[in-house]
């Protein structure tokens, strides 16, 4: 039997799709189920397996009208290719994606920092940045779903590296139908007097941000930013968001007001210290280079 090392050499007309077709058949011992998995017709699947067998010069699959079995050569091929092909796919995917940084975020990436950092990075590396929205971007880093993330609030747990790079001012959001809309500003210690609308999934302000005895007792929970906007607009309570929301999420039924003595929202870059992405360091350097000399919210 030919050596597995020769399967994809120039001496054999074997394509990766032929190998995937054979492994699907070997897994299911059924051409119909394998064809369904690969989303191809059974005749096409049969031709792929036959071409692989022709290239190898040996039969891999024994097929009758009732069942499908593997020959000894097929069993050997399944054992070896079952380990080697996933590793090859991983390598090919890594090569394909090495020029792309997946940037995770929950909502409203900080501006203008994001735009400046992306331009600096892409000009320096010819790589690209792909924004990926995720309810928990720090968890997405741990799972390998994104390469780096921007988070607001407390640093995440786990092994991820979290680097603070700016702070955002907090602003209040009130319904235009509320008497508070006539105010010029609100005090941080006043919020205990009103229901607080809280995005419990990806929000940046919760009752834990107030000192003991000053936090709002009445919380109106919601699951995303759009729900948060509509609950505030409907007068169900007041909200607190980064000042970037004022510029980027105006609402005709919401007025945004400055807050006296509100602590700023810390913003961090999060990434895995074990990441081998060839462009991760370049992105972090570009991001840190574009942080403001004096972060918003510092005075």
From TrEMBL:
Keywords: DNA-binding, Transcription, Transcription regulation
GO molecular function, one term: DNA-binding transcription factor activity
Ribosomal protein found in the keyword field: no
Protein transport recorded as keyword: no
Highest taxon above the source species: Bacteria
TM annotation in the entry: none
InterPro entries named in the record: LysR_HTH_N, LysR_subst-bd, WH-like_DNA-bd_sf, WH_DNA-bd_sf
Residues of the HTH lysR-type domain: 14-71
Name listed for the protein in its UniProt record: LysR family transcriptional regulator
GO CC annotation terms, alphabetical: protein-DNA complex
Similarity comment: family membership: Belongs to the LysR transcriptional regulatory family.
Cross-referenced Pfam families: HTH_1 (PF00126), LysR_substrate (PF03466)
SUPFAM superfamilies: Periplasmic binding protein-like II, Winged helix' DNA-binding domain
